[in-house]
Design a protein that fits this description.
The complex is a heterodimer of chains A (253) and B (231). By secondary structure, chain A is mainly alpha-helical. Chain A is built from 11 helices and 2 strands, in the order H-H-H-H-H-E-E-H-H-H-H-H-H. Helices cover 70% and strands 3% of the residues of chain A. Chain B is built from 9 helices and 2 strands, in the order H-H-H-E-E-H-H-H-H-H-H. In chain B, a hairpin with a 2-residue loop joins strand 1 and strand 2. The chains are: A mainly alpha (253), B mainly alpha (231).
Chain lengths: 253, 231
């Protein structure tokens, strides 16, 4: 896949994490986040252990810590809520740096903050090491209905058609004397949204017919037909197993 | 309350049993949607479904401010239902949500079930039902179609936010007063609903004017060609 087909968060590479079969990665990521969510909020050690496992995965994948830190800002809105909770929550109060804070509220805020952050980090790990094409192939191998994969595949293609069409319309507006500035651009884009849809559809229709005439049957050909060896599952599920063990220990202790 | 405003719930907002419960609800709903969509989609309409999904995906990147510090984005349920029908529409919105969670870490993986239940199932179904009830109006004039799209999109947003309130009541953190959460969420979604309605109305209006054959809601409503005598 050329650069034009990879998505924003993907970091091309050839590490063992990149090479794990995509469907194994999807299952592992889901299992990991489930473990995080099921962990009682006062098990601080368990959350630290999750983070250590993730950092180990990143070092194997060769993605620098900084990269994740910069992209985890996606969850800033959640942090704002979590920081407010200690002050608005009810129940027993305690003093923190001279400010009265609610114990219940602090724990609730911590709960959202830590679980949200770990969830985002797991998803980012997945996104950084799996290309868009692999991801769709992974969904297909997980026996996701073919209709679903077909729509998702077409959607990925059309996102680029829409973005390009929007760019063309913008250039057309500018060359007719439109002066786009930060906010004013917004109004023109909004008014042109219906036209954008029609233009994208008609271009997409041509692309689709071209694909059909070149033998597209509605399913992505799975280039990697061989069933992954059991070893792949084992290797891919190691981090998830580490999460599960941490959860079991924290629940048992 | 920016978390719930974005409608994409993150991990940890709901507890694990509730996440799994709504995951099951979502899977069940999607099984029905897939069965229904198989009947609806063919060679010609499958790309339409893909485009609607891509369009919702792209337009969701535009956040419109509704209050200082609070912004909303398109949910797309009513738009998808009017253009490709309720079954394929629910699938389109689901695909957008799944890919956003997997590729962009937007919305938690464990909250996916609840997010799909709200936006893809409840949102699309409510938007479609309202559009069908008002179908007579939509088929009569172009303005009627635009108005129906607006109303359906507005209701879809507000009703989808009720789904969030329900989930939060079952598995949310008891540190929040439910009444306050409900009032904030529903209030903000009334405002987001206006933005949703405008985008939906503009898009459906444009498609209905140029290619009415692509609008699912207008199927079977094509008026016969009238030949007028020159006077």
């Amino acid at each position: 896949m050329g650069a034009g087909h990879s998505h924003l968060l993907y970091r091309a590479g050839d590490s063992p994490v990149h090479r794990i079969a995509p469907h194994v990665k999807i299952v592992a990521a889901l299992a990991m986040v489930l473990c995080v969510v099921a962990t009682p909020r006062s098990e601080f050690g368990a959350f630290a252990a999750y983070l250590i496992v993730l950092i180990a995965v990143w070092s194997v994948a060769g993605v620098p810590l900084r990269w994740f830190a910069a992209r985890a800002v996606i969850e800033i809105p959640f942090v704002v809520l979590a920081v407010l909770l200690p002050f608005v929550g009810g129940g027993r109060r305690t003093d923190f740096l001279g400010l009265p804070v609610s114990v219940e509220g602090s724990l609730a805020g911590w709960n959202i903050l830590v679980k949200g952050t770990l969830g985002v980090l797991v998803s980012l790990t997945m996104a950084a090491t799996t290309s868009q094409r692999d991801l769709l192939a992974g969904l297909q191998r997980l026996r996701v209905p073919s209709l679903f994969v077909t729509i998702a595949t077409l959607m990925m293609r059309y996102v680029e058609v829409i973005v390009e069409e929007a760019r063309r319309m913008r250039i057309a507006r500018i060359s007719r004397g439109h002066d786009p500035r930060f906010l004013w651009q917004f109004g023109a884009t909004a008014r042109g949204i219906g036209t954008l849809f029609i233009r994208s559809y008609e271009r997409g229709e041509r692309v689709h017919i071209a694909m059909l005439s070149r033998g597209w049957s509605g399913v992505l050909p799975d280039v990697n037909q061989t069933r992954p060896a059991p070893g792949v599952w084992v290797a891919g599920l190691v981090p998830a197993a580490a999460f599960a063990v941490t959860l079991a220990v924290s629940l048992w202790m | 309350m920016t978390t719930s405003v974005a409608m994409h719930m993150s991990d940890g907002l709901l507890n694990a049993p509730t996440s799994i419960l709504f995951g099951a609800v979502a899977v069940l709903g999607l099984v029905f949607a897939t069965i229904g969509a198989r009947r609806d989609l063919d060679d010609r309409t499958a790309p339409m479904a893909g485009l609607v999904a891509a369009f919702i995906f792209a337009v969701q990147m535009l956040n419109f401010p509704v209050l200082p510090g609070v912004s909303g984005h398109l949910l797309g349920g009513a738009l998808a239902a009017i253009l490709v029908g309720p079954w394929a529409g629910a699938l389109c919105v689901t695909i957008v949500l799944v890919l956003q969670a997997l590729l962009f870490a937007d919305g938690g993986l464990t909250a996916l079930g609840a997010n799909i239940t709200n936006m893809a199932l409840i949102g699309t179904a409510s938007g479609y039902l309202i559009a069908v009830v008002l179908r007579k109006l939509a088929t009569r004039t172009r303005f009627g179609l635009v108005a129906v799209a607006f109303v359906a999109a507005f209701c879809n947003t507000v009703i989808a936010s009720l789904g969030f309130v329900l989930e939060f009541a079952i598995g949310g953190d008891p540190a929040f007063a439910l009444g306050g959460v409900a009032a904030t969420v529903i209030g903000v979604h009334c405002l987001i609903g206006i933005g949703e309605g405008v985008i939906t109305a503009l898009t459906v209006g444009a498609v209905g004017a140029v290619r009415p054959d692509l609008v699912h809601l207008l199927r079977g409503a094509a008026r016969p060609l009238v030949i007028k005598e020159a006077s």
